[in-house]
Amino acid sequence: MKKTLIALTVAGALAGCSSSQETPPEPKLDTNDQKVSYGMGLVMGERMGNDLPDLQMDQFLQGIQHGHAGDEEQTRMSREEIQQALMAYQAEMQEQAGAKQQELAQKNLEAGETFLAENAERDGVETTDSGLQYEIIEEGEGETPSAEDQVRVHYTGELISGEVFDSSRERGEPVTFGLNQVIPGWTEGLQLMKEGSRAKLYIPAELAYGPGGNQRIGPNETLVFDVELLEINPE
């Protein structure tokens, strides 16, 4: 909505548009003023396409004409009416976005439950009381960390679709963090590993990022991590 308000403000600097029903001639782009005017209109149009997919073009162009003319008697809405319309539109968009988020969250939750139910039947996969699943790929010989320990790890994080959303291996640098500073699935899963181990953690949504997700993970996503526990409490 902030982008929309900015774009509407920018619109006031544009030249008035013809209301004739005849197709106007192609405007020239010879002078810099003409190029800037066209460029501003193009950028604004792109923003409008993203911010207002249901933009009513006739009313929009008339608003530009009246705003550029600067004649208060010509305008058809007061500033208060415009603000009320924008607030109502924003509330409607938020409601629609919330409904889509809930629909996606339910879809992801059901897909994750199906995946975990099938995965639990595979040889080598263990399921804890919390619902976390883990699979030891390489058994280490070191100590097991506690929730208060720091750990140094290499990992690759995937969605159940196989899409990689994060990887220390791709960055070429292991990471160090406290086990009580990460998602519950990591806190529990790393305590099931010995130093030097490599395991796969299959983390249900409630032990990951839940219905909120984050910037790279959708709501109620089940996550798969391939983790190497390199060192406990590294210096």
TrEMBL record:
Reactions listed under catalytic activity: [protein]-peptidylproline (omega=180) = [protein]-peptidylproline (omega=0)
EC annotation from Swiss-Prot or TrEMBL: 5.2.1.8
Start and end residues of each PPIase FKBP-type domain: 148-233
GO terms of molecular function: peptidyl-prolyl cis-trans isomerase activity
Keywords, comma-separated and alphabetical: Isomerase, Rotamase, Signal
Gene3D superfamilies: 3.10.50.40, Peptidyl-prolyl cis-trans isomerase, FKBP-type, N-terminal domain (1.10.287.460)
Cited Pfam families: FKBP_C (PF00254), FKBP_N (PF01346)
Domain of life (superkingdom): Bacteria
Matching InterPro entries: PPIase_dom_sf, PPIase_FKBP_dom, PPIase_FKBP_N, PPIase_FKBP_N_sf
GO terms for biological process, alphabetical: protein folding
Family: Belongs to the FKBP-type PPIase family.
Protein name (Swiss-Prot/TrEMBL): Peptidyl-prolyl cis-trans isomerase
Higher taxonomy: Bacteria, Pseudomonadati, Pseudomonadota, Gammaproteobacteria, Pseudomonadales
